[in-house]
């Protein structure tokens, strides 16, 4: 049995929960009333003989029991006496001893008939064990329970998924279910995939997190994708219930994410999920970024990906949705009473709710006590309304006034990296930044760990992947928007920052700043050329070969074309071709291909590069370039090399077919298994040819031996889709207070205080 302290519920949620639970215990339906409106009555039931039962709930989390008992004696008893009900039931979230109940019965006599009509924390937990349906309906209770967490943490999922899940659970107490929640679940149930879109700060990630909680409670295992859809393919388990999560799956690097084969891989994975009843896939993206992605890559449009979209907009939030969001943030904040009073004075909370710039992210900032340094209670209201009037101020003052030069530099580096960065890489970039020419007068302490400790929790988030690998990311995406725009016209700062980072992610950021019209192309040319000159002067010290190659490719795309008369570029080619391929090497392969075609390099170094590349599990795009390089080698003279390349193509084709069998291409207009096998061979031969394999027959034979075409044939023509082995219950969704019996303003009712 779970033991709840009910602290994750606000007072109104606690009233709804108690009304629900006591209705189940008594076998009747208690009607809710506005607090204070009917002498403090929270629920009322009229018997057929006209006698009245009154239910009162007290959820004073931070109040000592003695003070609460005094309030009941001095205030509540007078209200009960005036009502004179036939039966009075009192529910407290405090733990109660037998003696505590005796004292309360004495103070509420004669209206409390038995000790069973005074319920404390232990009694509520006992009742929940008897009425599990009530527990399921109030999911904020059980989603953070030890049973759920133990269940999840025992699963063989990536550390990143554990970290993300714990963050989602922590945020759940602030969550307010809206119509969006139910509609998004309906879309997931009907299509298995949902792409949550909307403007920045509207709550896309929060909604996605709560959808994940819903499915984790249904025994789905969470797998979080960070950068590449291949991560999801790598942990895909045919037999398991899995929910995949790709937050901000395009991000600012949508050009990179949707270029070439990658866009098709995402769409193919979506199609794979749609066919599997035991899988769910949740993605988020800003609406503007997704629209730009569709324009860039028509594979999204051609595959009708829009049917999976679910847009969250401010207009989709009703007034009560916004009211509950604000109320929940106030309740769970650490704001002192004087600050809260400022929001209640003259019903100012309504000004926040009705503000055109209202969004959950801004409300979170407004109610965050850590962001109120130097803001006295009397200034709090003007501070809050000014943040809504000028959202950029959310970060302007903390970044400009509360950080020194070194602190700002560290935030700048993380921002321009474009995604999470390892602590090791950030430390090296920070050291390079501090050592850059002309920055000797920077203010602040130059100690890396000291700055990191200072910024963690306010500007940056530090988290651990695996046992020891720490990573750093921005505390909030809106901080990235602010920093990008703040430095857009500061060319010297951009030069120093990007030359200090030396990461592939930072080059993607620079490229996408142009695409998103944050900086002009001329600025990117200047910055890219500055980076190139810096690393050439240091003879590419500590540089990854793919970073150098990607930088060369970017310079060419920006108009600084490759030239055989450019000695620095020739030095870069020599560095790239002599380095071992590690991980990604698409840009390196393109540079090597250019060098080979322009006779800047001999066949020997290229042969060594190819041997290393073929053993590095090349992707589709990498194989296309390697195939072009291979075409410059004679098949007879370099037989061992061509065999090595054909083996790499074979491995890729086998893995791609195992991930997503091409059913439509193989089985359409197919009348027999032998015809299916012929179709499969023709398709594999075509793909192997596109990738530049030399011995097509040998490649196809190897692929065919590894793939059971007959099994796929039987499944396609005779096997129906299995039904999910879990039951989807709409009645287990989160609930919020229903209509009140009184005709009162629902917003004011929500914000009413005892």
Automatic annotation (TrEMBL):
One of its GO terms (molecular function) is DNA binding. Residues 175-332 form the Novel STAND NTPase domain. Residues 8-63 form the Restriction endonuclease type IV Mrr domain. GO terms for biological process: DNA restriction-modification system. SUPFAM superfamilies: P-loop containing nucleoside triphosphate hydrolases. This is Uncharacterized protein. It comes from Pseudomonas veronii 1YdBTEX2. The lineage of its organism: Bacteria, Pseudomonadati, Pseudomonadota, Gammaproteobacteria, Pseudomonadales.
């Amino acid at each position: 049995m779970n033991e709840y302290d009910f602290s994750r519920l606000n007072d109104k949620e606690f009233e709804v929960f108690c009304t629900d639970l006591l209705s189940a215990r008594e076998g009747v339906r208690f009607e809710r009333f506005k607090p204070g409106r009917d002498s403090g009555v929270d629920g009322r039931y009229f018997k057929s003989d006209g006698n009245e039962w009154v239910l009162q709930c007290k959820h004073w989390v931070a109040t000592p029991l003695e003070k609460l008992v005094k309030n009941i004696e001095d205030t509540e008893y007078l209200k009960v006496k005036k009502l004179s009900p036939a039966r009075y039931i009192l529910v407290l979230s405090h733990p109660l001893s037998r003696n505590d109940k005796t004292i309360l019965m004495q103070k509420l006599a004669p209206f409390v008939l038995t000790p069973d009509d005074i319920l404390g924390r232990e009694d509520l937990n006992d009742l929940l064990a008897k009425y599990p349906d009530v527990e399921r309906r109030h999911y904020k209770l059980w989603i953070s329970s030890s049973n759920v967490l133990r269940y999840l943490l025992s699963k063989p999922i990536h550390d990143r998924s554990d970290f993300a899940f714990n963050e989602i659970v922590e945020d759940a107490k602030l969550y307010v279910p809206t119509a969006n929640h139910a509609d998004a679940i309906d879309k997931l149930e009907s299509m298995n995939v949902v792409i949550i879109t909307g403007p920045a700060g509207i709550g896309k990630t929060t909604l996605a997190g709560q959808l994940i909680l819903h499915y984790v409670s249904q025994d789905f295992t969470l797998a979080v994708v960070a950068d590449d859809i291949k991560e999801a393919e790598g942990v895909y388990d045919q037999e398991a219930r899995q929910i995949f999560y790709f937050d901000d799956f395009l991000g600012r690097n949508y050009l990179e994410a949707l270029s070439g084969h990658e866009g098709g891989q995402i769409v193919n994975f979506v199609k794979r999920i749609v066919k599997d009843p035991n899988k769910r896939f949740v993605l988020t993206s800003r609406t503007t970024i997704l629209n730009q992605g569709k324009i860039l890559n028509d594979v999204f449009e051609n595959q009708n990906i829009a049917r999976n979209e679910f847009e969250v907009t401010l207009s989709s939030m009703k007034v009560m949705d916004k009211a509950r969001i604000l109320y929940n943030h106030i309740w769970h904040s650490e704001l002192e009473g004087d600050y809260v009073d400022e929001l209640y004075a003259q019903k100012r909370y309504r000004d926040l709710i009705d503000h055109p710039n209202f969004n959950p992210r801004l409300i979170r900032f407004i109610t965050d006590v850590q962001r109120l340094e130097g803001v006295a209670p009397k200034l709090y209201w003007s501070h809050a309304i000014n943040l809504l009037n000028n959202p950029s101020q959310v970060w302007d003052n903390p970044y400009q006034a509360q950080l020194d030069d070194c602190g700002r530099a560290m935030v700048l580096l993380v921002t321009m990296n474009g995604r999470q960065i390892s602590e090791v890489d950030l430390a090296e970039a920070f050291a390079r930044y501090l050592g850059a020419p002309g920055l000797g007068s920077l203010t602040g302490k130059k100690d890396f760990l000291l700055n990191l400790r200072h910024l963690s929790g306010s500007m940056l988030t530090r988290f651990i992947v695996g046992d020891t690998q720490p990573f750093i990311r921005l505390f909030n995406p809106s901080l990235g928007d602010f920093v990008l725009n703040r430095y857009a016209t500061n060319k010297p700062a951009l030069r120093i920052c990007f030359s200090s980072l030396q990461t592939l992610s930072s080059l993607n950021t620079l490229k996408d700043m142009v695409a998103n019209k944050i900086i002009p192309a001329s600025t990117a040319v200047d910055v890219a050329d500055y980076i190139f000159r810096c690393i050439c002067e240091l003879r590419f010290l500590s540089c990854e070969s793919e970073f150098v190659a990607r930088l060369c490719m970017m310079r060419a795309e920006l108009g600084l074309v490759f030239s055989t008369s450019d000695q620095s570029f020739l030095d870069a080619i020599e560095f790239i071709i002599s380095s071992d391929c590690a991980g990604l090497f698409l840009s390196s392969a393109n540079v090597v291909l250019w060098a080979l075609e322009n006779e800047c390099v001999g066949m020997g170094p290229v042969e060594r590069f190819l041997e290393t590349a073929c053993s590095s599990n090349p992707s589709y795009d990498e194989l296309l370039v390697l195939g072009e390089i291979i075409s410059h080698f004679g098949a007879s003279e370099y037989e061992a090399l061509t065999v090595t390349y054909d083996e790499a193509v074979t491995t890729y084709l086998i893995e791609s077919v195992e991930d997503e069998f091409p059913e439509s291409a193989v089985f359409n207009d197919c009348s027999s298994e032998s015809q299916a096998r012929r179709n499969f061979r023709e398709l594999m031969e075509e793909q192997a040819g596109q990738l530049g394999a030399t011995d097509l027959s040998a490649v196809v034979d190897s692929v065919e031996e590894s793939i059971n075409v007959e099994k796929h044939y039987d499944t396609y023509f005779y096997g129906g889709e299995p039904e999910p082995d879990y039951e989807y219950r709409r009645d287990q969704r989160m609930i919020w207070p229903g209509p009140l019996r009184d005709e009162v303003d629902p917003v004011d009712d929500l914000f009413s205080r005892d």
